[in-house]
Protein: Tapasin-related protein-like protein
Amino acid sequence: GDTLVNQPPRLESEKGERVIFYCIVPLVRATNAIRVHWWKDDDHNFLDAKEDSRQIFKIPNRASATFTLERLRVSDAGVYYCRVQGEITGNGTGTTLQVSAPPSTPKIFSMGSSDSPIYGCTTTGYYPDDLKMEFFKNDIKLTELKEDKQLTAEGEYNFSSTVEEKEPVPIGTTYSCTVSHPTLKNSPKAVNYTVIPEEKGLNDSFAWWIYVCVGAGALLLLLPIVICACKCRIRAKRRKSEICVRCSGLKTAKPQSKKEEAGSQVTQKPKTNVNKGTKAKNKAPRTQKHRTRDRKST
Structure:
């Protein structure tokens, strides 16, 4: 029949820590004479290190086997059993694991308009569900609070408490929030918040910064384009002026003024008259010769 295999009945730890489960067996001849498997709760599928790298299985000696679970999560809580096969056979008595998680440091936030603002306190990621939150305004405990608690997929809780003011809150008003939980023992976590001038909701200030960043980015992108366009325009003007200078140079190669042109015409006219005069003189004797010949013939 099955051999009694003992296990420590209970383990307690916190999120992120490491625990070791023990499976105690009667002394065997060698560590390789037995095989040990583990499972959780009513799931009879054995745990496999290939499916979860946080799991480490060992048989350190001939009288025990260990199962190490690292980086604990709240969802790891449950009852773990071992199964021994080989030289001896038997199931373990089971070890109950309890995992707790401390709450985060509380945060105070504001939202809504300045005429009727809403102030709140929030904390996240705690387990078990045994949290106490107190909200104060100028050291006076607030009682008319709206509370909200949520259970996450990881098995942890988130909690928030808000108060809606009916009128604008004076500058210098102080809100404070304290959180108590079994994991904190006797050291609750606390935070203070003081109203400052021209206070705005977190969403408004965040949106304002987005607009500033987008505008600055657009300016930086447009600046090189504008500079390049200006340079191209200046170069085009220079080329146009150079072409105009060349054209004007070709035009000045002709007579520079009307006076010079007129002067050249005046100097040319006498030459043409002189030539005509000489031609006339040359022709005149010829006509005389012809006439003398005619006279002789008569």
